[in-house]
Design goal:
Blueprint (H helix, E strand, L loop, with lengths): L1 H12 L18 H6 L23 H4 L4 H19 L5 H11 L7 E2 L12 E8 L2 E8 L2 E8 L13
Antiparallel strand pairs: 1-2, 2-3, 3-4
Helix pairs in contact: 4-5
Length: 165
């Protein structure tokens, strides 16, 4: 009889006997499952706001760190290739090399894709890459628009796959 009364009172208040189950009326600490679900993998309880909702800490460390050498070069490459793309929609290898060197890339380490197909036609896009540390700054000009990405260097120590660069 007492068990039925206890079960009835739990049901009318929205509480559950099952761990981890909650209903819209639950508040923080109303069940063991709710408390357990607020413990992140680090073992420390997650912070809560005044309403009892779990807060996710904001990641701000990246915003305060100075840009890496690769990120700094990428910004300069983007500006240089954008300038190049404004003068020609399909630059050739020499123009790409000049733009990358102007941005600060080491000319002896540059990798530049081909600018003509095996049949002698102009390529749709041309790319150039500059290794810097364990990363590659890769720039592309297609239809006069520049794109730049920073990617990990390949196991070969190169940025491009293949031998035509």
């Amino acid at each position: 009889m007492v068990a039925l009364l206890l079960l009835g009172s739990l049901a009318t208040t929205g509480c559950s006997l099952l761990p981890g189950k909650s209903t819209p009326g639950d508040t923080v600490g109303s069940s063991a499952g709710a408390a357990a679900s607020q413990v992140p993998t680090g073992g420390q309880p997650a912070p809560t706001n005044s309403a009892g909702a779990t807060q996710t800490p904001a990641v701000t460390a990246k915003a305060t760190e100075p840009p890496s050498a690769a990120d700094a070069l990428a910004a300069k490459v983007k500006a240089s290739l954008t300038k190049l793309g404004s003068t020609t929609s399909g630059p050739n290898r020499d123009q790409m090399k000049a733009a990358m060197v102007e941005a600060g890339a080491a000319s002896e380490k540059l990798e530049i894709s081909i600018d003509k197909t095996p049949t002698g036609l102009a390529v749709d896009a041309i790319e150039a890459a500059a290794p810097i540390g364990k990363q590659c700054v890769i720039g592309q000009v297609r239809d006069g628009k520049a794109s730049v990405a920073v990617l990990p260097i390949l196991a070969t120590g190169m940025c491009f796959v293949g031998d035509q660069h």
